[in-house]
Write a structure and sequence with these properties.
The complex is a heterodimer of chains A (161) and B (259). Chain A is α+β, with helices and mostly antiparallel strands and 161 residues long. Chain A has 2 domains: 2-76, Beta-grasp domain (Ubiquitin-like (UB roll)); 87-150, DNA polymerase, domain 1, CATH 1.10.150. Chain A is built from 5 helices and 5 strands, in the order E-E-H-E-E-E-H-H-H-H. Chain A is elongated and about 55 Å long. Chain B has 259 residues and is of the alpha+beta class. Chain B has helices at 12-19, 33-38, 74-80, 83-90, 95-100, 103-109, 116-122, 136-139, 207-215, 240-258; strands at 5-7, 24-27, 46-49, 59-62, 65-69, 124-129, 133-135, 154-160, 164-171, 178-187, 190-196, 204-205. In chain B, strands 4-5-8-6-7 form a 5-stranded antiparallel β-sheet. The radius of gyration of chain B is 18 Å and the shape is globular. The termini of chain B are far apart. The chains are: A alpha+beta (161), B alpha+beta (259). Chain A binds chain B through residues 2, 18-20, 22, 41-43, 46, 49, 55-58, 61-63, 65-66, 68, 110, 113-114, 129, 131-133, and chain B through 1-6, 8, 27, 30-31, 34-35, 37-38, 47, 49, 51, 75, 93-97, 99-100, 176. Bound molecules: flavin-adenine dinucleotide and FE2/S2 (inorganic) cluster (FES) (2 copies). Residues 25-33, 50, 70, 92-93, 97, 100-102, 104-106, 108-109, 111, 114-116, 148, 153-154, 176-177 of chain B line the site of flavin-adenine dinucleotide.
Chain lengths: 161, 259
């Protein structure tokens, strides 16, 4: 066991970890941040996507110790300072971008990473970017629509389904 | 996962020293190794992360040569390499995999369906390790086998930039690895064609196609030429014949994209 320290959602965080502890386990079990979901634990589904030093990564496929000293952001850090939903989260609600909600933390974190690099992505770019985020409920349509809306684009061209 | 120690050296020399321990293993981006450890298919006593080594980072182009750090992530290659290789890197896995996975890790792993091996064979490449330089043509030695010795790490890779090149991948939709992938590179002294994902012996150069395209760089030059279906991979995603057919189609598409 060794001490691992990082900044999570802007606050210093530390805990004890074995070498084999995953970042997803560290966030959920050591820090109690259970918003980062573990869907597959095999790097396929993207439910566990968080940002490490500004980049989207699968927290189930990174060791906690690899994130030592890093800036980590999770879904818990996404809301506005007053607790209201941020623009991406609000768009997911407005456009029914979730049903069971299991994939949603990863979807929102991936969407945030996409919009940081590409503030006005096309529908095709959004679909390509979300290749590593699986959703078993929505059929993706409304997720794509929510991200288009969150980036201030017209969504009327995306048929309602 | 079995328990292991974790180290993160900041120089190549320290990493090599740490890897001298019995059962120590290098950790690149972990996008292959961590899933392998989860399945308890490997039992290293110590993982030596290469992610903190500044000398293994960076992608640059100078005097017709592309140099990429062994620790460069797929995302970094996608951003900074010459166009055909950047496009290849931009289609490996998904964004989160590309933000962690590294060039050195992919080459060391030599998965028969990985993308970079095709590029390294089609391009005139040199794999640089802590100990020596290995020609790309000598590096890949069958499924998951390479010329690397125990504890040897890929520190950088150099490629001669071709006149033109294109990579066509037919992605297996669930894994996003190549069901077949063909990289065509045109140099002043001839055309090189490498095929990944398809053969039971791993990545290979398709010499018949190279000869035909060196004589006439046009999709039609490949008419009637095919790889031997007998040596292709057959699995639930595609038969031997299907893969052999894909290879021919993808090669033509790559040439058509350049012609
Ligand atoms: C969902 C998913 C989709 C993927 N899709 C694709 C795809 O479409 N195409 C594709 O090509 N790949 C794909 N991959 C694999 C990905 O590219 C991996 O990142 C890559 O194969 C391994 O690189 P790594 O840096 O993560 O290495 P690691 O997993 O850290 O290591 C892999 C092996 O290489 C060794 N190693 C690591 N770095 C070095 C080095 N510098 N020198 C010597 N040995 C080293 C390790 O000891 C280990 O044996 C995918 C992976 C996932 C999880
Ligand atoms: S839980 Fe990490 S990718 Fe599915
Ligand atoms: S909303 Fe249920 S998995 Fe996406």
């Amino acid at each position: 066991m060794a001490k691992v320290s990082m900044t999570v959602n802007g606050k210093a965080a530390s805990g004890e970890a074995e070498g084999r502890m995953l970042l997803s386990s560290f966030l959920r079990e050591e820090l109690g941040l259970t918003g980062t979901h573990v869907g597959c634990d095999t790097s396929q589904c993207g439910a566990c996507v968080v940002h490490v030093d500004g980049k989207a990564v699968k927290a189930c496929t990174m060791l906690a110790m690899e994130a030592e000293g890093s800036e980590v952001s999770t879904i818990e850090g996404q809301a506005n300072a007053d607790g209201s939903l941020n623009v991406i989260q609000q768009a997911f609600q407005d456009h029914h971008g979730l049903q069971c909600g299991f994939c949603t933390p990863g979807m929102v974190m991936s969407a945030a990473a996409l919009l940081k690099d590409n503030p006005k992505p096309s529908e095709a770019e959004i679909r390509h970017y979300l290749e590593g985020n699986l959703c078993r409920c929505t059929g993706y349509h409304n997720i794509v629509k929510a991200i288009m809306a969150a980036s201030g684009q017209d969504v009327s061209s995306i048929a309602a389904e | 996962m079995y328990e292991f120690e974790f180290e993160k050296p900041s120089t190549i020399a320290e990493a090599v020293a740490a890897l001298a321990d019995e059962d120590a293993q290098a950790l690149g981006g972990g996008q292959t190794l961590i899933p392998t450890l989860k399945q308890r298919l490997a039992m290293p006593s110590k993982l030596v992360s290469l992610a903190g080594i500044a000398e293994m980072k960076g992608v640059s182009i100078a005097d017709g040569v592309l140099t990429m750090g062994g620790g460069a992530t797929h995302a970094e290659v996608a951003a900074d390499a010459c166009a055909p290789l950047a496009a290849l890197a931009a289609n490996i896995g998904d964004p989160a995999v590309r933000n962690r996975g590294t060039l050195g890790g992919s080459l060391a792993n030599n998965d028969p369906a990985a993308d970079y091996p095709a590029a390294m064979l089609a391009l005139k490449s040199t794999i640089v390790t802590n100990a020596r330089e290995i020609a790309g043509d000598d590096f890949f030695q069958g499924l998951f086998e390479t010329a690397l010795e125990e504890g040897e790490i890929i520190t950088s890779v150099r490629c001669e930039i071709p006149e033109a090149a294109n990579y066509q991948k037919f992605a297996q939709p669930a894994s996003r690895f190549a069901l077949a992938g063909v990289f065509v590179a045109k140099y002043a002294d001839g055309v090189r064609v490498a095929v990944t994902g398809a053969s039971e012996e791993g990545v290979f150069r398709w010499s018949e196609a190279e000869a035909a395209l060196s004589a006439n760089f046009a999709p039609d030059a490949l008419a009637g030429i095919s790889v031997d279906a007998g040596s292709m991979i057959a699995d639930l995603h595609g038969s031997k014949e299907y893969r052999a057919h894909l290879v021919a189609v993808l090669a033509k598409r790559a040439v058509a994209a350049l012609a």
